[in-house]
């Protein structure tokens, strides 16, 4: 049995929810993830499972409306961003979301991860993979920064 609960004996416990970009063995597609204990957690998988439903900026609800003329475009753009935010190659789009969104994502993650407890490493929850099977990548695209 391997613990994916809130063990305080590891740097990456329920009180420290870092964000990063990973690829897993045999895959080239980069994706947003966090770490809990000895496991990487694919945030795109959790998003697809509805863990972040209702979080502004991640559920298709626009978090900013400028005018009636641009409202429809804003809704479409927000829905597109929400669908793809946690499946990006970098964290730039997620980082640009409001602090309220970051807080809500963190709270949902902590709530979800706290409920998991002990699981067998042969049957991990969706989105979980051993850290030994992932490669970390630079989390931000900084090519246009000077």
From TrEMBL:
Residues 15-139 form the Fumarylacetoacetase N-terminal domain. One of its GO terms (biological process) is aromatic amino acid metabolic process. It comes from the Eukaryota. InterPro entries: Fumarylacetoacetase_N (IPR015377), Fumarylacetoacetase_N_sf (IPR036462). GO terms for molecular function: fumarylacetoacetase activity. This is Fumarylacetoacetase N-terminal domain-containing protein. It comes from Talaromyces rugulosus (Penicillium rugulosum).
């Amino acid at each position: 049995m391997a613990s994916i609960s809130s063990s305080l004996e590891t740097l990456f416990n329920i009180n420290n929810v870092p964000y990063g970009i990973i690829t897993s063995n045999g895959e080239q597609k980069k994706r947003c993830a966090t770490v809990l204990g000895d496991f990487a957690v694919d945030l795109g998988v959790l998003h697809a499972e509805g863990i972040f439903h209702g979080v502004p900026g991640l559920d298709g609800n626009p978090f900013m409306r400028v005018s009636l003329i641009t409202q429809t475009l804003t809704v479409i753009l927000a829905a597109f961003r929400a669908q793809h935010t946690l499946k990006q190659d970098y964290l730039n789009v997620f980082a640009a979301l409001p602090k309220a969104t970051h807080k809500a994502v963190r709270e949902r993650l902590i709530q979800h991860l706290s409920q998991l407890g002990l699981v067998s490493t042969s049957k991990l929850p969706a989105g979980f993979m051993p850290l030994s099977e992932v490669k970390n990548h630079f989390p931000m695209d900084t090519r246009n920064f000077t």
